[in-house]
């Protein structure tokens, strides 16, 4: 019997290795709009005023990010289209290079990269009652985002940039895996996320509680252990009982897990680091 992860499961902080802390802090504070929550040696915690969203650790000797390996992107979820518009205006004002702007029918998203080449998505969700399910399947696709429509949200109420809204969350992770079928087995059969979409073994979306996706996996390669980019990302269970049940199931399946003071750590089959907390 496949475990089902608690439907109220969410994502939390993403830990990244960066090559130059000062450069990264300038980007994440001035352009993305995060603020420093805490500093501890060579590690800095950032967020929008509530829970941490990023944990940056400097390693000047780390190997560069390589396309198609490890993290594809992490996705910052802002609470409204207006907040997405504010971020877009900030990117335009600072002449920040963008990699794309897409309408996925369930969401609208802007894509860019940090100074180390780590992929970032900033997005807003459409209300769930606007999602459609033709043939019983959630309709997710990709068309060009209505940039002018998004900017009109800001033009109707222009405000001074003060950073990301405090209700900003970590929305989803999109990861490269060495084998999508193996990745689905891990995230569905062992972790308990529900499969949402499978694109012919090239890419798969999985989620808890009917969300469009908390985890996206796509065919790629394992990142080098010393690479810049993802160290681990956080899956947050709503109760200690839910966390304990998940960890018990993982151990029964002979998945190596490690208890630490700030969570339970493990890796998916492609070596992507995961932290479990409640």
Going by CATH, the architecture would be Roll
How many strands appear in the DSSP assignment? 17
Which strand-content bin applies to the residues?
Answer: 35-45%
How do the helices and strands follow one another from N- to C-terminus?
EHEEEEHEEEEHEHEEEEHEEE
- Helix count, DSSP H or I runs of 4 or more residues: 5
Based on CA atoms alone, the radius of gyration comes out at 18 Å
Mean pLDDT: 97
Contiguous uncertain segments of 5+ residues: none
Question: Superfamily at the CATH H level?
Answer: 2,3-Dihydroxybiphenyl 1,2-Dioxygenase, domain 1
Alpha-beta content class: alpha+beta
The CATH topology label is: 2,3-Dihydroxybiphenyl 1,2-Dioxygenase, domain 1
Distance between the termini: 24 Å
Instruction: Count structural domains.
Output: 1
Helix percent reads 10-25%
Reading off the top of the CATH hierarchy, the class is best stated as: Alpha Beta
Shape label: globular
Q: If strands are numbered along the chain, what order do they take across the biggest sheet? A: 9-6-7-8-5-10-13-12-11
């Amino acid at each position: 019997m496949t475990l089902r992860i608690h439907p109220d499961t969410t994502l939390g902080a993403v830990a990244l290795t960066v090559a130059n802390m000062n450069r990264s802090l300038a980007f994440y504070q001035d352009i993305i709009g995060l603020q420093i929550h805490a500093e501890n040696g060579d590690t800095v915690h950032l967020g929008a005023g509530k829970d941490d969203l990023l944990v940056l650790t400097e390693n000047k000797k780390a190997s560069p990010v390589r396309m198609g390996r490890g993290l594809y992107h992490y996705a910052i979820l802002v609470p409204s289209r207006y907040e997405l518009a504010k971020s877009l205006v900030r990117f335009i004002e600072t002449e920040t290079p963008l990699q794309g702007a897409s309408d996925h029918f369930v969401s609208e998203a802007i894509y860019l990269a940090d100074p180390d080449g780590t992929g970032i998505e900033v997005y807003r969700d459409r209300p769930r009652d606007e999602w459609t399910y033709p043939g019983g399947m959630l309709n997710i696709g990709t068309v060009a985002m209505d940039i002018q429509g998004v900017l009109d949200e800001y033009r109707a109420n222009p405000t001074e940039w003060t950073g990301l809204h405090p209700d900003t969350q970590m929305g989803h992770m999109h990861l490269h895996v060495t084998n999508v079928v193996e990745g689905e087995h891990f995230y569905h059969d062992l972790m308990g996320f529900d499969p949402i979409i499978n694109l012919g073994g090239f890419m798969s979306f999985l989620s808890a509680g009917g969300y469009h996706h908390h985890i996206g996996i796509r065919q790629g390669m394992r990142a080098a252990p010393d690479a810049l980019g993802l160290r681990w990302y956080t899956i947050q269970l709503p109760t200690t009982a839910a966390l304990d049940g998940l960890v018990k199931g993982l151990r029964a399946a002979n998945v190596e897990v490690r208890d630490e003071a700030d969570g339970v750590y493990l890796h998916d089959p492609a070596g992507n680091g995961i932290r479990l907390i409640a």
